Amino acid sequence: MESRYDPATVEPAIAARWSEAGAFSVSPEDPGDPFVIAVPPPNITGSLHMGHALNLSIQDALIRHQRMRGRKALWICGTDHAGIATQNVVERKLRDEGLTRFDLGREAFIERVWDWRAESGGTILEQFRRLGCSLDYAHERFTMDDGYARAVTRVFVALHDKGVLYRANRMINWCTRCATAISDLEVEHHDVEDVLYEIDYALADGSGVLTVATVRPVTLLGDSGVAVNPEDARFSGLVGGEAIVPLADRRVPIVPDDHVEIGFGTGALKITPAHDPNDFEIGRRHGLEEITVIGFDGRMTEAAGHRYAGLGSDEAHELVLADLRERGLVRAERPLHHSVGHCSRCGTRVEPLVSLQWFCDMEGLAAPATAAVRDGRVRFHPKGQERIYFEWMDAIRPWCVSRQLWWGHQLPVWYCACGETIVQESPPAACPTCGSAELRRDEDVLDTWFSSALWPFATLGWPDETARLQAFYPGNVLVTARDIINLWVARMVMSGIEFAGGIPFTDVVINSTIQAPDGRRMSKSLGTGIDPLELIAEHGADATRYGLLKMGSSQDVRFSAGAIEEGRGLCTKLWNAARLILTTTDPVAGAPVVGEPIDAWMLGRLDSATREITDAIDRFDLATAVKALYRFAWNDVCDWYLEAAKLRLYGDDLAAKLAVSQTLRHVLDRTLRLAHPFLPHLSEAIWSELGQPELLVAAGWPASGETPIDAEAERSVTAAIELVVALRRIRAENDLKTRAELTVGAPAGLLGASVELVRGLGHAAVLDGLDDGGVPVLVGDVPVTISGAGLAEALRPRLEKHLAGALAELERAERMLADERFVSRAPAALVEGERAKAEGFRREAAEARAQLDELP
RNA sequence: GGGCGGUUAGCUCAGCUGGUUAGAGCACCUGCUUUACACGCAGGGGGUCCGGGGUUCGAGUCCCUGACCGCCCACCA
Question: What's the half-sphere exposure (Cβ side, CA atoms, 13 Å) at A82?
Answer without folding.
Answer: 20
